[in-house]
Amino acid sequence: MGISKKISLFIERSSWIRKMFEEGNQRKALYGEDNVFDFSLGNPDIEPSAKFKETIIELLNKDIPGMHRYMPNSGLLNTRKAISEFLSKERNNKFTEEDVIITVGAGGGLNIIFKTILDPGDEVIVPVPYFVEYEFYIDNHGGIIKKVRTKENFSLDIDAISEAITSNTKAVLINSPNNPTGKVYKENEIKGLVDIIKYYSEKISRPIYLISDEPYRKIVYGSQVANIFKFYKESLLVSSFSKDLSIPGERIGYVAVHPDIHEKNRLISGLSLSNRILGYVNAPALVQWVIPYLLYEPAPVKEYRRRRDIFCNALESFGYEFIWPEGAFYIFPRSPIKDDKMFVCALQEENILVVPGRGFGGPGYFRIAYCVSEKIIEKSLDGFKKTFAKFNKI
Questions:
Q1: Terminal CA-to-CA distance of the chain, rounded, Å?
Q2: Residue 55 lies in a domain
Q3: Burial, 121: exposed, middle or buried (Cβ in 10 Å; 0-12, 13-18, 19+)?
Q4: Which of 376, 285, 300, 351 is nearest to 24 (CA)?
Q5: CB distance 172 to 208 below 8 Å
């Protein structure tokens, strides 16, 4: 066989999200786009704001010398400075441009973190359900993912995390608002988590990092995303502009480190070097120029809340069991039958594309991404109702 055994194994375990997305494209070709209800991928259908387009045109018309050249590995100075000022206001910490690295999306951000902090065999604790790509990102750099259950309502199980920490633990990775559950972790959960991390950091005589992946931070429905920097200095934030600005294809994000993090200069140097040696070199130049003008642009929360409410009210009336999402644009219902894959296949018969929960470490559930038009949501509801009834006949 020409390819590696590891990649062969990863292909078998690879993201259900992409599998369902590709299935959706095939079905659209067969049945027509309006007759396929694709909730597989967190790919916002809402277009970027007029300001995004206007800013690009304005910048291009300025004909800025060197606009499309390489820049420092950490990203454009003015962009990092703008983000650091934004974070200083939002997080009540004093960030500088030195605390920020511009990355190729949040995925690029996580990879440069793991490249910088992990030695072979180091463990990263991840609460489940979780975004499945985390496992591959951690493995990319010799680490081992350690999956830890959450509570029935998907809140953090601090006792389970405590039991999972060993002398090999290098970091705890959280995602709030969470993909796939829409859960937003509360301040008391983060404080409890930090207390445990501090205790074990002292016990093993080195810091355990807290990494928070927050690309959905602006998409919340009343809940507030806890500020990790308020509680713990050995923390790193990863974010992107893919979801709140609706520009996932532009691949632009950043890593921010706590201004007082341990050995900050070496850590920043490692992150900056990793940005280059992993082949990213730089995040896209044009979008780096654009971002400072859009940091305070609101996310389309009203639109997503309306879609969430339409979907959740209908699913609830059909008999589905789920926790109403507090953020992001995902619903994670319990499958009416134990085999989530079988139920997802049954939904496909109604041309409904969702992702089995096993793809997120949550067997017995399935994920719905409602970043699609209200028309698609409403047209799909009869299929959700029929499929649920099929498995719940008296």
A1: 51
A2: no
A3: exposed
A4: 351
A5: yes
